């Protein structure tokens, strides 16, 4: 049992490192050629929100912990709202989200994470879901602050990115509180 716990922590650690590695790769790429476009940013925003919505729905289906379920519902509701706003904005601006390496890496990592989530139940599920949410929100906040906001050329897109940061910070604080209680 103890070996399984260490293995899951190790896998979670690798997943977090992979996301952060993608963010740093994007940072290195951007600093060398400034190729992040508003279309890339739109795709990243759409992809990142869809990932948290999907994980939240899995948590609603699998968790029996009220705190975890309430948090998962908050993720589904809030990230759907951000996604809807982003889609309206890019439609109004005439920007078509354009996938890039980060979007593809996020999608692959998300699929792997969802497979792990679907294989767990009970406290093991709750712990993995919440631990991932902490790492994911930390990484997303960092990417939004250091890459997406500075890289956005359109003022409305930049303002939208700035406006969602307080909610993402609140999500991080919320899941850290749950993490401490698990």
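-> sequence recovered:
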């Amino acid at each position: 049992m103890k070996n399984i716990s260490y293995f899951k922590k190790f896998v979670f650690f690798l997943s977090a490192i992979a996301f952060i590695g993608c963010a740093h790769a994007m940072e290195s790429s951007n600093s060398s050629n400034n190729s992040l476009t508003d279309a890339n940013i739109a795709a990243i925003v759409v992809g990142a929100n869809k990932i948290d919505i999907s994980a939240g729905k899995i948590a609603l289906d699998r968790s029996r912990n009220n705190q975890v379920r309430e948090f998962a519902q908050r993720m589904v509701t809030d990230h759907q709202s951000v996604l809807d706003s982003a889609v309206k904005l890019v439609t109004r601006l005439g920007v078509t989200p354009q996938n890039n390496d980060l979007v593809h890496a996020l999608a692959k990592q998300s699929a792997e994470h969802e497979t792990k989530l679907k294989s767990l139940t009970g406290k093991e599920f709750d712990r993995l879901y919440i631990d991932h949410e902490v790492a994911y929100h930390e990484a997303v906040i960092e990417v939004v602050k250091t890459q997406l906001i500075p890289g956005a050329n359109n003022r409305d897109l930049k303002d939208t990115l700035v406006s969602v940061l307080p909610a993402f910070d609140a999500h991080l604080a919320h899941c850290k509180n749950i993490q401490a209680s698990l």
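The chain has six helices and no strands.
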